[in-house]
Amino acid sequence: MAALNLSCYYHLFHSLSHSPPPRNVASVSILHGRNNISLSPMPLTFHRQKLHNNLLVLATTMSTSVRDDLPPALDSTSEPPPVFDGTTRLYVSYTCPYAQRVWITRNCKGLQEKIKLVPIDLHNRPDWYKEKVYPPNKVPALEHKNEVKGESLDLIKYINTNFEGPSLYPDDPLKKEFGDELLSYTDTFNKSVTTSFKGDGVDEAAAGFDYIENALSKFDDGPFFLGQLSLVDIAYAPFIERFQPYLLDVKNYDIKVGRPKLAAWIEEMNKNEDFNQTRRDPKELVESYKKRFLVRSPKQG
What we know:
Helices cover 47% and strands 10% of the residues. It is an alpha+beta fold.
């Protein structure tokens, strides 16, 4: 879906509201890239403020993202890209939640055309990735200005600060302080939930999700951790995407029960096209975690 400029809607409103209406109906067709959005028919006596509100809602609810044509993952048989040729590249794995954080950030900033996605097959990694691109041999990694940087939390902050697009972190000092606290808690949260995967109960996972529920209650100006969508939501989303179906399937534990804020957050995240473009099939995620956390006994082979 092509990126939309909000100003086009204001120009449209201005031209409509300062021109005489047609005799019978007003029909508006907005052509932008692949989009053909029609608002018709409208009655002769439409109200200017109502039209303004409708156009504003339309503009703010349309996805501002560009859908990627996802390339195949590069493996040991693949040739390397022309590294350090001035192209900004984001090296990811389609299955890695840490890489997914940075991928979502790229999308939310509208940088699909500025940052090229380069997927790596982690099960059959090309030798050149370690030798020529990123010696730690992990994803994510960002090639930018003849340097390669890593670590997902550092990268989402770097992209937010050093590239164009909407800011994904608030200026409000209170929100910023709480956001920093929540970003620091991500590893603790992930560990507490995955620890429950290995045992019989869900107490540690429940405690982690209770913390999330309380954190989502901090601000009331939106359904997200800091009110509006931010790097904090992006940092947690790939992991909750995996934890929710796994706990429901294996432990029969629904993380949304008794946590209305978390349920609302999940619903809102699932509406976000920039996030949805990075998501995997829940069944695939559950099977992946089963292979990782469910240890077979010798009798089971």
